[in-house]
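Worked example 2:
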Amino acid sequence: MKKRIFAAVLAAMTTTCAFALPVSAEEQTYTIGICQLVQHDALDAATQGFEDAVTEALGDAVTFDEQNAQGDTNTCSTIINSFVSADVDLILANATAALQAAAAGTSEIPILGTSVTEYGVALELDDFDGTVGGNISGTSDLAPLDQQAAMLNELFPDAETVGLLYCSAEANSQYQVDTVKAALEELGYTCEYYAFSDSNDISSVTTTASTECDVIYVPTDNTVASNTEIINNICLPAGVPVIAGEEGICSGCGVATLSISYYDLGYTTGEMAVRILQDGEDISEMAIEYAPNFTKEYNADICEQLGIEIPDDYTAIETEDAE
């Protein structure tokens, strides 16, 4: 009799455990550390797009630890180290300096970059073929640089000297101006470099460029993006137009750009994060993804002040003043 009672109790315990496990199992949660190099429209939009994509897929199961380095590369490293100590599930590195800091900080936690122009340059990869490997992947904001050169030629065919204005501390800025310079020289322009090491030099370098050049080109440069008012206050009175690498810079100091949507770029990066966290996709095999669409845009206010006529296939940038 005791044996039958013990067997019945054991059977009941086994049945209870079998059904209780799924009910008591906690929902999987994730923490994502976001390191953004500096605050400006393009990077802000990329971060927002990323968070929206992840939240739409994971809802309340994800928590973001969003931190901004205020343009300081050393702070990027400090932020990344805090993420590593906290053992976050994934790191979003928004901009090249943030990606470099993340790559140096961990080889274990998955890292997704965004707003990074060329991963091979940023990570000093000699044999980069589109896939970084290891624990790194992400999205690139690289626009067709030859088409940006062609845009400059379309709008200013009679110009002779083009100034290439950029921050020498940003490796991907150097890559962009080198590439654009080659394309412009094939079109017959004379190109001159005007590099500044940080924001303290922007005013003096821009002033020199505006006195020596017919047109200025600026790439997708974070230091430029954070200081467009300084550039505009120099170039606009001098009557020197600026062709910009992206929409945010163009809205601040440019006349035209061939640009991507940084929100969409961030959103794509967020979708990659979901595939890693929720679906278990291997980040080491994920190729860098690129923006699918590019738009010819112009700054109506600056174009009007400089008397520049823009072709019909350009779209006006919606600025706060216009709104």
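The first helix runs from residue 2 to 24. DSSP finds 13 helices and 13 strands in the chain.
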